[in-house]
Fold these 2 entries.
Entry 1:
Amino acid sequence: MAPPVSQSMRDGCVDRHDDWLRRCGPGCNLILLKTDRQKNLGILHRLLHVMLAASLVVQTVNAIGQEEPSGGQNGSHQQTPYQNMTPDQRAEATRKFLGLGAEPDKVAAARGAPLFQQNCGFCHGQQARGATGPSLITSDEVLTDDHGERLTPFLKKGRPEKGMPAFATMPDDQLKDISEFLHLQIEEIANRGTYHVLNILVGNAAKGQAYVTTHCMSCHTTETFAHIGSSFHSPEQLQRGWIWPMRREDSSPAITATVKTPDGVTVAGRVMQVSDFRITLVDHKGKTHVIDRVPGVNVQIKDPRAAHEAMIMSLRNDDMHDVTAYLATLK
């Protein structure tokens, strides 16, 4: 069963800054209908899980753990970064984060597929996405079930008053197989961690080297790229890493800002949170400053990744593959 969504998830809105899943003030609260409030909260609960999986996968990855080059720091034990996990580990981590429940039994789901399609597909669609009847992907009955313990008695009883027949004579094991099939459909839609990336080293390394020389060396040095090909767990992580380098708590890609207030005070430091209303900085002494962006406050932000952001807007697929192929050779 999916865990309840936290109050901060209900009441918060994602800060516009792409590195932090911060929440803005109480003015951003979601407004729920006062009539039948409990039902509205239940619907919101389901939609949040689907939205997180289908539309906010990048935020999911950030929340679980950013990728890091292999090796760790000072030999200390650390949880495996999300992007360095195997596909099975990634799927399990995403499943837990999204509250998708127990892992579906794929063998049972394969048995349940023809049963569902023969008995239910004409109404709910062959993959349970909906047809003349509703989609079951966000069904409360399905989402609150793990392995048929709720769905089996529900299917036996049916909802005749709403046009859903009872399957009273179908054996329990077949109804459980149908349940596993439904859970697998949700897993395949929501759990992006199950995706397997195929080989992406298809570019021309020589052309990639030329691109780096022309577009990258004004900011970087040859030392930047030394051994970069062996610093990532896989080619797709290497490609993601050079296009959009991750930020770390103690590294230069951090966003910094200088803030001048109307009374002449200047505060500089690492940006922890920024919105149209306020900015939060940590100065070189570790002190946190929260400054309201009222009239007269001047904010100058320096983002070392600004050049990468501009590059992304014009980066061609061929260039991306060429650079990745070149960097992969720098072992």
Entry 2:
Amino acid sequence: MSDKLEIYLDEISHFLSGRAEREEILSEIRSHIMEKAAAGPGGSSGDAIEKAIAAFGPARQVAERYLDHSRPIIDPAYKRYLFRYTTLLFAFHMLLTVVAVIFKEDFVLFPFLFMPRLGVIEALMYLPTAFLADLGIVTMILYFITQSGKDVRLPWPKFGVDLDEVKPPTKNFWVSRIATAVGAVIMLAITDFALYLFSKHQTIVFVNLDWTNPRPLFTPGAGRRISLIIIAGFAVATLNLLVKLFTSSRWVDVIDNIVSLGLIGLLLTQSFDNLFAVRIAENILPKIRFAAKFLLLFIALMTTIQLIKSIVIVSRRRLAQRTPLKTETHD
């Protein structure tokens, strides 16, 4: 047997799945190549086999011809459940993360779940990893269901709907653009006013509204840092609206949400030691700290939900665009 034939078959096997099916496919390819080589002028010589291999085609293309008739990794009927269950599982993960941060507790449900005690920064770093883990778990379960070949009816609450089933209200093109333009002008004015206040007072957060003698709420260092983060948030929102005047791509929302989460994370890292420039009663300070963190975590949670929604919509649109192409290839 030619060494080049074995190397060629080994390359094809890298693109095939299922041991039994793989051996059967490789045996069939080996037979075809040997028959084609034997039918040539050189018989079963090494040169004849090499020519037969060249005529058979590249290893990956050969494997794809056989894979076209095999079972998919995830059956198309179950693909919508990939996004359904991942979103549901990740929402549960986010809820536990918020609880772990606020109450500083860890949760163990061995061997299914371990939620460690997390700080704010650790939680923000943990959530993307949790999303990928949830996606991997759901993908693995749907893969095994598909490979079993059984018709499994997956549960889903009747009140639950898919994102593509939610029909947004129809808006006139110019009406939506005018509303976006008005919002952009308002946000631009707010950002410009915030920059004016910062350039004059090195902060934008005050205790009173007396512009002749304003009293900053925060100490100079903390006031500058918090003000710059808030101004950056205004600028991101303004840029988001300006870009939406020219495109309706969901990627704009994805980038906006990611940057917003980063800014919220910076606010959450702000220390409360020597934060206020005005006197705050000692018994009220812990309540203010708790309320501020709870509010920022709630905003982060809502932003994360919007981020997931945008990512799911983008993914489903890309999937919908690829499906017709695959159908045409099969035909």
